[in-house]
């Protein structure tokens, strides 16, 4: 290494690692390193140079060895979500299949607007050794490779072709990951030869730098228009999305709703903006929501959507709202604020709610409207209480959720993702602590659950070690990706994993039946290519990865096992069989548009097709 007064000679890989270690963020007056470290699987495309560069910085940028690149990306996404997008992890993968395995995780981070930095190996710039191991050759386009596939699933993408380029690319990638409107994954393709090339970098490039998240003040005219619309409202409702938490605006949301007597409904990403027993919390909204929230949203004349991208599970494919309802969208992203001809208020949720509060002065929604909303919530609470209660009936997701929810600490974090559990957790989980629910439904990605739990547990290390991370996962997602049980045991990051085994992809079997079809290729029992169906011994499998594991037969046994898991010091896995047909949450569902067959030999399929066509008549077209 050569140093002069104004420069230092480093390889590209060394410069990237040093620069990352020098970036800090101010979070509530406390400065902390913005990159919490990384997840890595080394190969020929990253270990010779990037591995060499990361080793001296292993204390500043701890590197967690993953078992699968896709699960590394899921863990990084969950880490960023836990830190409310104010900190991130990098993922490093080798050229070829190692990098390709990150594609799904990048798409998940993109859909959920989460920061994640990918440092991935690429083909040689010189092309002298071409074709190299794991290189994809495009005969008419030799520069095209696996890394180009990430352009569709990243907010920032760059291929480093000269050592000086990172002087521009690294700050640009970080600025994207920290931007409230453009936040998402950043990808740097690092050719294998270039990683080791040296350059005389300015020493000032590696000076310690403190960053802050930008808060955009909404335009005063937009605030005035929104306030005027709200002041005229007879039946207003607030939709609280995930952006409320990312803005740190939970207190402002609560104060605003209380000051003006406006009921609040939550999106899936916005679950845990309010505690379950808050008098203005009317419940989760949408396809996997609650009857209470859907009824109030359907009767509202003005809808204030705060920090939500309004995806179809929130809006019931845009059938939840009354045809004449006016929509106000307060969002840091212009794209989200302008959806469905909403009155757009582009800006930070915290600042926007404060400004709206000041503009509304002494406005309060009619007391009768709030009373109606609260009565709807009481009815819904009664339904949920009966739905989760153990009884003389088959085991269900809802019963398991009820057991875990009752016994968890208010500070515990619950993590789930694809299959039937997102709907069941959203509907039946009663929030005990703000920001303690992670239902990954932006990309609804199988396999996120255990990896995401590991990432969340890493994120809380040294902050709240007494808080448990509870993963609720179905047998299908478990089989798709479970190796981070081993990761959690290896690294000492305890998880409580509840595996609910219903014999296959039961929620898709339910969807299949609901569209008039016979059960086919979802439940193991109905796979024509399976001559002798059998169940996996998940507990034995988990024990083989070092976890404490047991199988239970009833909700009462689940409760006892969960208490033992709470008392344990390392990862515990609890397995319980649930019925694939009985016990689904039957209420709380808004209409959802799905593609159905227009031509079929089945009368039931055609009947369901007609039902979908009839439901489409209620879709909002905008005002």
TrEMBL record:
UniProtKB keywords: Hydrolase, Thiamine pyrophosphate, Transferase
InterPro entries, A to Z: DHS-like_NAD/FAD-binding_dom, Myo_inos_IolD, THDP-binding, Thiamin_PyroP_enz_cen_dom, Thiamin_PyroP_enz_TPP-bd_dom, TPP-bd_CS, TPP_enz, TPP_enzyme_TPP-bd
Residue span, Thiamine pyrophosphate enzyme central domain: 223-356
UniProt superkingdom: Bacteria
Enzyme class: hydrolase
Domain Thiamine pyrophosphate enzyme TPP-binding: 433-575
Pfam families, alphabetized: TPP_enzyme_C, TPP_enzyme_M, TPP_enzyme_N
Keyword Transferase belongs to the record: yes
Enzyme Commission number(s): 3.7.1.22
A Gene Ontology molecular function term of the record: 3D-(3,5/4)-trihydroxycyclohexane-1,2-dione hydrolase activity
Thiamine pyrophosphate enzyme N-terminal TPP-binding domain residues: 39-134
Coiled-coil spans in chain: none
Keyword Nucleotide-binding among record annotations: no
PANTHER family per record: 3D-(3,5_4)-TRIHYDROXYCYCLOHEXANE-1,2-DIONE HYDROLASE, THIAMINE PYROPHOSPHATE ENZYMES
Family: Belongs to the TPP enzyme family.
Protein name as catalogued: 3D-(3,5/4)-trihydroxycyclohexane-1,2-dione acylhydrolase (Decyclizing)
Naturally occurring in which organism (per UniProt): Gemmobacter denitrificans
């Amino acid at each position: 290494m050569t140093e002069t007064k104004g420069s230092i000679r480093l390889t590209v890989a060394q410069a990237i690692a040093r620069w990352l270690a020098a970036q800090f963020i101010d979070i509530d007056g406390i400065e902390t390193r913005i990159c919490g470290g990384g997840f890595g699987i080394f190969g020929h495309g990253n270990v010779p140079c990037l591995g060499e560069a990361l080793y001296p910085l292993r204390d500043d940028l701890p590197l967690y060895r993953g078992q699968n690149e896709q699960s590394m990306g899921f863990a990084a996404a969950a880490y960023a979500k836990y830190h409310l997008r104010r900190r991130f992890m990098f993922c490093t993968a080798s050229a070829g299949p190692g990098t390709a395995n990150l594609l799904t995780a990048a798409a998940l981070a993109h859909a959920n607007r989460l920061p994640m930095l990918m440092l991935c190996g690429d083909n040689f710039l010189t092309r002298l050794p071409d074709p190299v191991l794991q290189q994809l050759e495009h005969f008419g386009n030799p520069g095209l490779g696996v890394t180009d596939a990430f352009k569709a699933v990243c907010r920032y993408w760059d291929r480093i072709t000269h050592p000086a380029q990172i002087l521009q690319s690294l700050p640009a990638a970080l600025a994207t990951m920290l931007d409230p409107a453009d936040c998402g994954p950043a990808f740097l393709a690092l050719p294998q030869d270039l990683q080791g090339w040296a350059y005389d970098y300015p020493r000032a490039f590696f000076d310690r730098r403190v960053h802050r998240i930008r808060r955009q003040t909404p335009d005063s005219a937009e605030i005035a228009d929104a306030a005027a619309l709200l002041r005229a409202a007879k039946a207003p409702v607030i939709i609280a999305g995930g952006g409320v938490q990312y803005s740190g605006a939970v207190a402002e949301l609560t104060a605003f709703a209380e000051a003006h007597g406006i009921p609040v409904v939550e999106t899936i990403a916005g679950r845990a903006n309010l505690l379950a027993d808050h008098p203005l919390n009317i419940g989760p909204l949408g396809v996997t929501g609650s009857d209470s929230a859907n009824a109030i949203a359907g009767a509202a004349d003005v809808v204030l959507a705060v920090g939500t991208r309004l995806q179809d599970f929130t809006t019931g494919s845009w059938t939840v709202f009354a045809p004449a309802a006016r929509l106000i969208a307060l969002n840091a992203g212009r794209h989200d604020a302008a959806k469905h001809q909403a009155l757009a208020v582009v800006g930070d949720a915290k600042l926007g709610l404060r400004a709206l509060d000041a503009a509304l002065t002494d406005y309060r929604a009619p007391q009768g409207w709030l009373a109606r909303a609260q009565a709807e919530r009481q009815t819904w609470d009664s339904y949920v209480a009966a739905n989760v209660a153990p009884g003389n009936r088959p085991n269900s997701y809802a019963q398991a959720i009820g057991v875990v929810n009752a016994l968890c600490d208010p500070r515990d974090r619950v993590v789930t993702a694809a299959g039937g559990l997102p709907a069941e957790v959203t509907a039946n989980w009663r929030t005990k602590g703000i920001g303690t629910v992670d239902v990954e439904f932006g990309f609804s990605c199988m396999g996120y659950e255990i990896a995401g739990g590991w990432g969340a547990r890493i994120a809380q290390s040294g902050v709240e070690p007494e808080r448990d991370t509870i993963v609720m996962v179905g047998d299908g997602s478990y089989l798709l990706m479970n190796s981070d049980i081993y990761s959690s045991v290896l690294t000492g990051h305890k998880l409580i994993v509840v595996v609910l085994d219903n014999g296959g992809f039961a929620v898709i079997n339910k969807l299949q039946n609901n569209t008039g079809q016979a059960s086919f290729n979802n439940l193991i029992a109905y796979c024509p290519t399976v001559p002798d169906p059998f169940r996996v011994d998940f507990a034995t499998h988990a024990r083989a990865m070092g976890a404490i594991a047991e199988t239970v037969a009833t909700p009462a046994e689940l409760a006892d096992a969960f208490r033992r898991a709470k008392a344990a010091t390392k990862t515990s896995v609890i397995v319980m069989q649930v019925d694939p047909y009985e016990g689904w949450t039957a209420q709380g569902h808004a209409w959802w548009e799905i593609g159905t067959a227009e031509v079929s030999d089945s009368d039931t399929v055609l009947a369901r097709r007609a039902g979908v066509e009839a439901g489409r008549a209620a879709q909002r077209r905008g005002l």
